[in-house]
């Protein structure tokens, strides 16, 4: 997969099948569009992403790239929402970008897709322009879950509520947090519970602080465990971290990149009056997690 940022110098020689949108989270609805462009074997597949926000993403840019890399997508275009793009009239965008620079022969969008200056363009306009510019448009019905259209907004609502089962159903894969394993204060070790600490990107949208049942991917391996998200109020930390106790793991992970999938919310993070009480609660969390993963 080739990654391209911005539209300066943007040019793809080959003929393409393009899908357009924000694509935060690459949820099940987005995946439907993606599979349509990937089906067109005689065309290169292009995901044209455009997003104006600076933070609060279900997937960070790196995580999105990691996910899309595995799908066989040919090109990922990351276009900032700058005036030279957002100010373009819809048809100008189609002609200048999609036709002249990307050689789009197939365009796939969801039913409610809007683009161009003041969201002036939509799927109907694209259908209208098919003949004039020699491409074919496919307008995809919205993928639903329990009677509601799946959208990034829906995923974010579920995430903010800590409803990981719903988040994961909407995404069609398990929500995860990527990062490098850093050194904690090494108190975990003295508690008999060594943990992996990572500090997520400030752009990453996290569920509420608390303890979650998790599965951590490390290269080709995966380990079940329990993860605490928060500031560790008992010992008082200055940053919001993601800390995981891995079941049945013994080794050194400092410096490794890991992906922590969150499966289920267990309890909110709490401030304990002693480290001993915290330790007892952590042991109870671990016992709960082991029962969930290994005895269900
Ligand atoms: C499963 C689990 C649950 C935790 N729950 C809490 C909590 O409720 N309150 C808290 O202050 N810290 C909590 N922590 C964080 C501990 O304070 C932390 O693991 C310990 O102090 C070691 O930190 P260190 O890795 O920086 O040495 C939890 C950690 C884990 C792994
Ligand atoms: N549930 C869905 N089913 C099919 N297509 C979808 C679905 N959701 C979005 N799309 C399409 O995927 C593309 C990217 O969508 P985009 O990320 O911009 O919106 P969204 O997922 O609805 O998020 P938001 O809630 O931020 O509007 C658009 O073409 C959109 O119409």
From TrEMBL:
Domain of life: Bacteria
Enzyme class: transferase
MF GO annotations: FMN adenylyltransferase activity; riboflavin kinase activity
Pfam families in UniProt: FAD_syn, Flavokinase
Pathway: Cofactor biosynthesis; FMN biosynthesis; FMN from riboflavin (ATP route): step 1/1; Cofactor biosynthesis; FAD biosynthesis; FAD from FMN: step 1/1
Keywords: ATP-binding, FAD, Flavoprotein, FMN, Kinase, Multifunctional enzyme, Nucleotide-binding, Nucleotidyltransferase, Transferase
Catalysed reactions listed for this entry: FMN + ATP + H(+) = FAD + diphosphate; riboflavin + ATP = FMN + ADP + H(+)
CDD domains membership: FAD_synthetase_N
EC number: 2.7.1.26, 2.7.7.2
Residues covered by the Riboflavin kinase domain: 170-294
Family of the protein in this entry: Belongs to the ribF family.
Protein name: Riboflavin biosynthesis protein
Organism: Hominisplanchenecus faecis
Lineage, highest ranks first: Bacteria, Bacillati, Bacillota, Clostridia, Lachnospirales
């Amino acid at each position: 997969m080739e990654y391209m940022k911005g539209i300066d110098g943007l040019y793809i020689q080959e003929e393409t099948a393009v899908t357009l949108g924000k694509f935060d989270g690459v949820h099940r609805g987005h995946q439907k569009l993606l599979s349509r462009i990937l089906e067109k074997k005689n065309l290169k597949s292009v995901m044209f992403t455009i997003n104006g926000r600076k933070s609060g993403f279900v997937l960070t840019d790196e995580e999105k790239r990691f996910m899309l890399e595995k799908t066989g997508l040919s090109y990922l275009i990351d276009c900032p929402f700058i005036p030279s793009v957002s100010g373009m009239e819809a048809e100008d965008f189609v002609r200048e970008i999609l036709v002249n620079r990307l050689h789009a022969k197939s365009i796939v969008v969801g039913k409610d897709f809007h683009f161009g200056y003041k969201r002036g363009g939509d799927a109907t306009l694209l259908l209208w322009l098919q003949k004039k510019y020699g491409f074919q448009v496919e307008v995809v019905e919205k993928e639903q879950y329990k009677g509601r259209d799946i959208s990034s907004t829906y995923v974010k609502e579920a995430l903010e509520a800590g409803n990981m089962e719903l988040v994961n159903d909407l995404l069609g894969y398990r929500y995860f947090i990527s990062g490098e394993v850093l050194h904690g204060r090494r108190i975990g070790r003295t508690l008999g519970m060594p943990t992996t600490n990572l500090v997520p990107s400030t752009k990453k949208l996290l569920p509420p602080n608390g303890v979650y049942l998790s599965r951590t991917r490390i290269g080709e391996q995966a380990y079940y465990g329990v993860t605490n998200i928060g500031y560790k109020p008992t010992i008082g930390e200055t940053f919001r971290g993601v800390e995981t106790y891995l079941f049945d793991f013994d080794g050194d992970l400092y410096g490794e990149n890991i992906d922590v999938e969150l499966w289920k919310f267990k309890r909110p993070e709490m401030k304990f009056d002693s480290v001993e009480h915290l330790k007892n609660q952590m042991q109870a969390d671990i016992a709960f997690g082991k029962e969930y993963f290994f005895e269900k």
